[in-house]
Design goal:
This protein promotes the GTP-dependent binding of aminoacyl-tRNA to the A-site of ribosomes during protein biosynthesis. The protein is an alpha+beta fold. The structure holds guanosine-5'-triphosphate (GTP) and magnesium ion.
Length: 666
Amino acid sequence: MWQCSICAHENDTSNLSCELCGVLRDLSLYFNNISETEAGAKRRNKYSGVSVLARSLFAPSSTKSKAIIFSDGSQDNRNATGNKQATMDALHKTYMPSKKRHINIVPFKFDTPSPDDMVTTGLKSSRNFRKAVQIKDSVDATGKKMMDSGILQTEKDTSMDPCTSAEVDKLGGTSSSVPSSNQQVTPILDHELQHLSLESKPKSSKPKIKKPASISEYKPEPWMLQSEDQEIRRQLNLAIVGHVDSGKSTLCGRLLHALGLISKKQMHKYEKEAKEKGKGSFAYAWAMDDSTDERERGITMTVAVKYFDTEKYHVVLLDSPGHKDFVPNMISGATQADAAILVVDASVGSFEAGMGVNGIGQTKEHSQLIRSFGVENLIVAVNKMDMVEHSKDRFNFVKLQLGIFLRSCGFKDSSITWVPLSAMANENLVTAASDSRLLSWYNGNCLLKSIDSLPPPHRDVSRPLRLPICDIIASITLGQVAVCGKVEAGGIRTGSKVLVMPSGDLATVKTIERDSSSCNLARAGDNIAVGLQGLDPGHLVSGGVICHPDFPVHVASRLELKILVLEITTPILVGLQFELHIHHARVSASLVKILSLLDQKTGKASKKMPRLLTARQAAVVDVKLDKEVCVEEFSALKALGRAFLRSGGNTVAVGIVTRILDEAKV
Ligand code: GTP
Ligand code: MG
């Protein structure tokens, strides 16, 4: 027998993880200084691989934007983007009214109780924590323009807005020689988030919040709890992520084409135009990459949203950018995901680049991020198999290498589906493999069947309304005061009163749009656009939250976070500044104190007040925000209680909000 270090449950010696809370028995491997391959070999035997904290932060406990970029049309000059964005930003700042800008943000979705959850809440089962998912999009889930839904304009994505990188270079995280979009956002965010500051609130905005009621008093209304069985097809938000050029957009385009959703005529047009531009191989990707910049540069910059149906699901495809500079955009789409397809390029050298020869590749970063958003089910599309002669050995090599890493992120083997395919050759996408080389060793599901086999997402409707504002939009059908985002908790109905935070204004819901058509109500998991009446549009900010009038969200200026440091090369020091993302809010923050280092095995405090944090350490930290942010403790609402820290263009740590230390009085 062995005793679980977290819940003290006595487990049989044959169990490699605690049967009660899932904590691994031997956690040391992951953090030893051994190569991944060596560690992997051992892990395969022991099913080890991840720390308690990694699991508690990434793993189970029971879930865009429009960039304006000048392009020089050359992929080789991608690194110049920062400067050009800076120019654009200067123009933008000068000529655009502040309310016309938005920021994209980033909910984390740690959806099942972590071992730490169980310790702190005394829960005995992870099954009580289920994820709030299901998204219905009338609105482009990432804020992209949707002319056909009547939305005329979403706000510009300030995630692409630049700032000097000097500020972020001071941070303790990994630094990049490439000025990424993420390095460049801080000033604009500060500006945007002035709205979040109660001090900067216009005088006319009088707080109208009643004394907040206790959450235990909340009783959902019957319409919110309407049976999900009434839905014919459940909606599944599927993020397509992976390293740059792995073939994500081509895969999406091919899939849509094979399903008859792109007409022959349209496809012919893409092919012709792509050829004319000397980018013939990108014809299918053009179905997703619709901006001139994206097409000229041959890379995705914003998240593209398309739809298709499988037998079981109405799938919302969220095609993410793979390039490092656009990770913030990837995040804003991927945070909406119920499940993800991680596309990896099987060809020699490219897979290795995604795994990060020098530093972390986006295959790794995207995997970590989507897991930290609460995505548990993953399809790994091993693409470009045509480039490796459909080799079983290469496929197995990719599976072995990446599998080790995915396990370390907290993905369970049983929740990962591996599909060898070739997007370009339409091999194994919507029908079974036909190439004899592939057929000789693969008889599993094609991609479409694998998508259909994903477990259905669960909707969480029993809490008070929380609708984090992703974008502020203007639309003919919705009116001038409208927002879009995903309902994270509760429900919303036309005619009902809602509280707009952090301004504290009360507004009436005039219209709701979902899936490009108006509707009377929406529930947790739905992606909607809401037209509001009775408030000043200037009081709406991206990163704000629409709430139930009696149950306002917290507005915090100082937080206690439990974080897990990712692969960084420069230590994180007390006093350093970074960019904090919480749902759709993004704000500059500073590390006031590292309260304690956490023991990897037990999750308990091992050292008080260390001065710095290095890669893969877990800690409890005290963080001061430059502006107030709408937030919930993770234990209260996971979607609004996940945070991640970015610095120097990289995600340096992910975490959860354990305590609100300073709260603004609204
Ligand atoms: P970003 O969005 O910029 O990260 O790129 P992406 O992952 O969307 O890649 P994209 O679809 O733009 O494709 C990149 C290149 O890979 C294009 O030249 C495609 O033609 C090529 N490609 C995609 N899939 C395949 C495939 O199955 N086989 C081969 N040989 N090439 C492919
Ligand atoms: Mg793409």
